[in-house]
């Protein structure tokens, strides 16, 4: 392929993208293919001779597109959104064309310096004070792993990386049952072990960790000769949007001198609206925070903002060189690969710059406020629809509900078949979760181009598809 072909195809794919997005509502949100359909359409062996782009692109349309679940569909109400706005796509295209590696300052000074500035723009946007600096990670999972490793090294007086864990104290980390599974995996990968992830019971409608139980669990561990290392709190848990009381958690942490990491992967984006910040009152007391601009801020995957109070601790944990002997950020040189597990790094800051400049904070705030307002409106309509009950109240744009016609025995089975029916229908996409053991249906709005009509269509679909389900 020569550069003239590249330019021609670049323009054609941009045009294809316009049509795709303009007509996306006509597609079923969740892929309607059966397992094996796509792999069977792909030749078993690689081609020995090259072909032309026209043939490849035709196969892309016929083989790939039917097997795509449309995350940018405005009626994608499953999981959490993974928003991609047009300016973020264009920035990604530019970053892909230049394809720099951004592990050291000198391997692309613009990428490093823009990352520093963009992290600070994000910090200001979500209302964190200026004691935080940060880094862009590939995912919240990586940020939480980096935070867990930092807790581990601090608690072991920086001996874990050097000696391995087998001869050192048994570490303990605390969280509720509402945190994301990335916390479990961080504990495994950090060598701390699932048995040392202590689950603290939650209380109240916010499903927050009970601070008295947290304090008691830590005290009991110390008495038993174990070594508490840190607490992982959540703002906007994945299942139902649980929010720990950050101030209360930080009070307990301060008493025992423990590290606090806050996972706000989804809800953090909403903090660009000051009126939602009471969900994480006390956040400036945390040691580290993660939120994903790639979820609800229109900065397409992958882009995870990891804020840290003390970057020296993170660098001391992850840098190969004894970087703690140097100054970070003060001489203008930061090597971000020393702030994360992978060495190689993509130029992710560019898409934040494009998105924030094109929409401004006002544009993004308007989008998030709309999603929240419309989700609340839908919730009220479902609440007053016969045979439906709201199970967890909206946290921002996330709530759960259940179809519960009187006299029906197995509601779990009924609701799972309703979810399956909805997703086979394809007009909207929802997922299920469990609340107190019951299977419930989960709704969250967050796609950039969703309208009020898209959100409210959910009720029509529910009414239609429950019609003959009973
Ligand atoms: C989505 C999510 C994660 C995982 O995010 P990745 O960036 O995919 O690793 C972690 N925690 C919470 C609360 C989430 O919603």
From TrEMBL:
<dbReference type="GO" id="GO:0016831">
    <property type="term" value="F:carboxy-lyase activity"/>
</dbReference>
<dbReference type="InterPro" id="IPR010977">
    <property type="entry name" value="Aromatic_deC"/>
</dbReference>
<dbReference type="GO" id="GO:0030170">
    <property type="term" value="F:pyridoxal phosphate binding"/>
</dbReference>
<dbReference type="InterPro" id="IPR015421">
    <property type="entry name" value="PyrdxlP-dep_Trfase_major"/>
</dbReference>
<feature type="modified residue" description="N6-(pyridoxal phosphate)lysine">
    <location>
        <position position="295"/>
    </location>
</feature>
<keyword id="KW-0210">Decarboxylase</keyword>
<keyword id="KW-0663">Pyridoxal phosphate</keyword>
<dbReference type="GO" id="GO:0005737">
    <property type="term" value="C:cytoplasm"/>
</dbReference>
<dbReference type="InterPro" id="IPR015422">
    <property type="entry name" value="PyrdxlP-dep_Trfase_small"/>
</dbReference>
<dbReference type="GO" id="GO:0006520">
    <property type="term" value="P:amino acid metabolic process"/>
</dbReference>
<dbReference type="Pfam" id="PF00282">
    <property type="entry name" value="Pyridoxal_deC"/>
</dbReference>
<dbReference type="InterPro" id="IPR002129">
    <property type="entry name" value="PyrdxlP-dep_de-COase"/>
</dbReference>
<keyword id="KW-0456">Lyase</keyword>
<comment type="similarity">
    <text>Belongs to the group II decarboxylase family.</text>
</comment>
<dbReference type="InterPro" id="IPR015424">
    <property type="entry name" value="PyrdxlP-dep_Trfase"/>
</dbReference>
<protein>
    <submittedName>
        <fullName>Aromatic-L-amino-acid decarboxylase</fullName>
    </submittedName>
</protein>
<dbReference type="GO" id="GO:0019752">
    <property type="term" value="P:carboxylic acid metabolic process"/>
</dbReference>
């Amino acid at each position: 392929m020569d550069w003239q072909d590249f330019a021609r195809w670049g323009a054609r794919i941009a045009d294809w993208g316009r049509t795709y997005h303009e007509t996306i509502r006509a597609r079923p949100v969740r892929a309607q293919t059966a397992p094996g359909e796509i792999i069977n359409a792909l030749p078993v062996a690689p081609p020995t001779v090259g072909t032309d782009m026209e043939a490849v692109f035709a196969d892309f349309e016929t083989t790939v597109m039917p097997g795509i679940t449309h995350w940018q569909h405005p009626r994608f109400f499953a999981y959490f959104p993974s928003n991609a706005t047009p300016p973020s796509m264009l920035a990604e295209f530019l970053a892909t064309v230049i394809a720099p590696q951004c592990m050291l300052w000198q391997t692309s000074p613009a990428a490093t310096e823009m990352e520093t500035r963009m992290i600070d723009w994000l910090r200001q946007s979500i209302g964190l004070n200026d004691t935080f600096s940060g880094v862009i990670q590939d995912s919240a999972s990586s940020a939480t792993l980096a935070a867990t490793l930092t807790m581990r090294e601090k608690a072991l007086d920086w001996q874990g990386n050097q000696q391995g864990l087998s001869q050192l104290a048994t570490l303990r980390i605390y969280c509720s049952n509402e945190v994301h599974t990335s916390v479990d995996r961080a504990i495994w990968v950090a060598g701390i072990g699932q048995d040392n992830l202590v689950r603290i019971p939650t209380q109240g409608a916010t499903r927050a960790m009970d601070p008295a139980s947290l304090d008691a669990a830590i005290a009991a561990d110390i008495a038993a000769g174990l070594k508490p290392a840190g607490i992982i709190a959540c703002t906007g848990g994945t299942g139902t949007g649980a929010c720990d009381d950050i101030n209360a958690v930080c009070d307990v942490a301060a008493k025992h001198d423990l590290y606090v990491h806050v996972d706000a992967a989804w809800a953090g984006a909403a903090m660009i609206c000051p009126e939602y910040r009471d969900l994480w009152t006390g956040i400036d007391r945390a040691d580290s925070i993660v939120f994903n601009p790639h979820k609800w801020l229109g900065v397409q995957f992958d882009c995870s903002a990891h804020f840290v109070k003390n970057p020296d601790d993170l660098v001391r944990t992850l840098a190969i060189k004894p970087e703690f002997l140097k100054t970070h950020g003060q001489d203008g040189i930061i090597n971000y690969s020393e702030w994360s597990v992978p060495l190689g790094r993509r130029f992710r800051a560019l898409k934040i710059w494009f998105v924030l400049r094109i929409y401004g904070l006002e544009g993004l705030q308007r989008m998030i406020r709309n999603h929240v307002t419309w989700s609340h409106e839908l919730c009220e309509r479902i609440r007053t629809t016969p045979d439906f009950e709201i199970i967890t109240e909206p946290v921002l744009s996330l709530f759960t509900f259940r179809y519960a016609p009187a006299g029906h025995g197995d509601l779990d089975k009924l609701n799972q078949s309703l979810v399956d029916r909805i997703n086979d229908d394809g007009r909207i996409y929802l997922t299920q979760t469990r609340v107190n053991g019951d299977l419930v249906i989960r709704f969250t709005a967050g796609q950039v181009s969703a309208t009020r009509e898209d959100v409210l269509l959910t009720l029509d679909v529910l009414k239609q598809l429950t019609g003959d389900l009973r």
